[in-house]
Amino acid sequence: MCAFVIGSGVGVRTGGERRGVCVGKRVRWVERRGVVRAVVEPDQKETVKKKGVEKEADVVEEKGNGAVPPEVPLIVPKRTTFAGLVYDRLQDTGADIAQHVGRMVTKPQVKKDVKRPRLVILGSGWASHSFAKVVDAVKYEVVIVSPRNYFLFTPMLASTAVGTIEFRSIVEPIRKANEFIDYFEASCLGINIEDQVIKCESVQQLEGESNVFDIPYDYLILGVGASTNTFGIPGVEENCYFLKEIEQARELRKGVITRFERANLPSTPEEERKRLLSFVVVGGGPTGVEYAAELHDLVTEDMSKKYSKLMEYFSVSLVQRQDTILTQFDGALQQRAMDNFKQSGINVITGANVVEVTPTAILLKDGRELPQGMTLWAAGNGTQRLVQDLLHSIPEQTEARGRLIVDDWLRVRGAENVFAFGDCAAMETGALPPTAQVAGQQGAYLGRLFNRDYCLQCELPYATAKPNSNVETIGMTDLAKPFQFLSLGIMAYIGEEKSMIQFEAGENKVKLSGALTYLLWQSVYATKQVSFRSRVLVLFDWFKTKVFGRDLSQF
C-alpha cells in the first residue's frame, strides 16, 4: 500500500474492488480499478501532508484486501475562474447542439422490446424544458407530468399582461422539446419514495369523473417551481391578482380594461372612479417593477387616447417592504430605477409592510391606507404543496426552508433516485436566486449527467463511460463536476422604453441603463426564445405595438 497526492486530489492506493462507499461523516471516497480516493482542494494539501497521508498512514483493513483511507474533508474540484467556467459551458453547449442536430438528422428508432430506465419529470418550466432538450430520450424512457402542456417564457409575462406581447407568442408545446419524450397532462398528488411510484390525477375531467393513476419510476426529477408567497396576510388570496401563469396574465389584462370601462360609466361617482383607477403593485422585485412599468406604458401610450377624461383619476403605486427596489442590482441602478419611476409619476412607497388587503384598500403597518381598485401581489415565492409534503416526509429535510435541499449533483437529500432543480430546490452550499437563468442551467446540467453514464447512486458520482468535457480526471477516476451557476447578468424593464442591464463576469460588473439599453434588452429576450417561431412572433408583436398600439378589446 502506498499513499500519494496527485492533481487536485489525495488518494490511497489499495487493491480492493469496492465502489461508492461513504466512510464516516467527513470523507466520501470511491474505489475503482484498485484505487481508493478522497478529494481535497489544492490549498489543503499542506494540511493533508501534515496528517501523514503521503506517508504509509494508518489504514483500517476491511473484508478482503480493501482498505479505508484516512479521514480528509471532501471538497469536489470546481472551476475557480470565470473564464474556466465559460470554457466548460461552451464545450457542453457544443455537445448539446451536436446531439440535438444528430437526433434530427438520424431519426433514431426506439426499440420497444428493450426495457429502458424510466425518468419521470414533474413540471414543464425552465429546468424541465432544458432537461428535456438535452437528455437522451432513446437511452431513457422520459415522461413529463404537468398540468400545463407547454413551456412558458416567464420573463415576458408582464408584457403579455398589458398586450405588448400576445399570449401565444411566449409559449411552446412541451412535446416540441424532444420528440422522443412522452407527456401526461396531469397533476401529481403524491410521491411514494420507498416504492418509487407517483400518484397523478388528470386535469381533464370528462363528465365530472376523476382519473387517478400511478406511474412507477427509476428516477424522479422535480421541477414544479414555486407558488406566490402571501405570508398569511389577510385578504391577499381573495383580493389580489398574481402573475406566474398565462391565465393570471389574461386576468390582469382583462381586469385593467374592466376597471376603465366601469369608471367611464356616467353613474360612477367621482370618488369611486379614483378608487377604481388606483392600481397597486406589492413587491419591488423584477416582476413587480416590470408590471408597474408596463401598466404605466399601457395607460399613458394607448388608453389615454381612448379614455382621456379619466386620466386625472389614474395612479400606479409600488409598495416595497425594503428601502429600495430591484435589490438584485447595484445600488446605482436601483437609484436610477427609483428616479425613472418618480419622473414617470409612479408612486414608490418603500419601507412599508402590508398587514391586510380589503376589496377597496391596502392597509399598511404604520396605519396608512391606500385605496385600490386592482392590486398585483408579487412579494415573493412560496412553497408548492407537493414540495411541502416531501419536506415533512423526509427526515433529512428538517433544516429546509421551503425548498428541497439538494447536493452538488442536484440529488435530493434523503431521497434515493430523486432529483430537484429550479425554484423548488436549494443547494446545500446555499440557495441560488430563483431565476430562469439558474433553472435553465440546472436542467441542462442534469441532462448531461444522465447522458454521460455517471454512477448517480454513488456518493461521489464517477463516469462509467468515456471521459468528456464534464469530467474531472483525478488519477484513474473520472469524477462528475458539481453544478456551478454561471451568472451572465440580470435585466429589468423600467418603463418608457428604458431598461437596466447588469452584466457579470466573475467579480467584474458592467452596468447599463437607458433607451439604448432597451434595444439590447429586446435583443436578448428575442434570442433567448426557445424556438424560431417564438422569435418571429415576439419581434412581430413589438413591431405591431409600435405601429398600431396595444389592443384594448375586451373579450
From TrEMBL:
UniProt GO molecular function: NADH dehydrogenase activity
Annotated organism of origin: Rhodosorus marinus
Top-level taxon of origin: Eukaryota
One Pfam entry name: Pyr_redox_2
Domain External alternative NADH-ubiquinone oxidoreductase-like C-terminal residue range list: 489-551
Keyword field: FAD, Flavoprotein, NAD, Oxidoreductase
Domain FAD/NAD(P)-binding, first and last residues per copy: 118-443
Family: Belongs to the NADH dehydrogenase family.
Claim: Iron-sulfur is one of the keywords in the record: no
GO CC list: mitochondrion
Official protein name in the record: FAD/NAD(P)-binding domain-containing protein
UniProt-listed InterPro entries: FAD/NAD-bd_sf, FAD/NAD-binding_dom, NDH-2, NDH2-like_C
